Amino acid sequence: MEIGYLLIFWYGVLHAFGPDHLTAIADFSIGKSLKKTMLITLMFAFGHGVMLFIFAKLLQNYLVTETMTAYGDIISSSVIIAMGLYLIYMVVSNRIQLNKHTHKNEEHIHIYFGKKHSHSAGTAPMSALSLGALMGIGGVRGMLVTLGMLHGSVVEWYMVLSFVLGVSVVFVTFGVAILYLNKKLLTNLTNVRRTFMLAGVVSVIVGTNMLLA
Question: Confidence band (pLDDT; 50, 70, 90) for 204?
Answer without folding.
Answer: very high
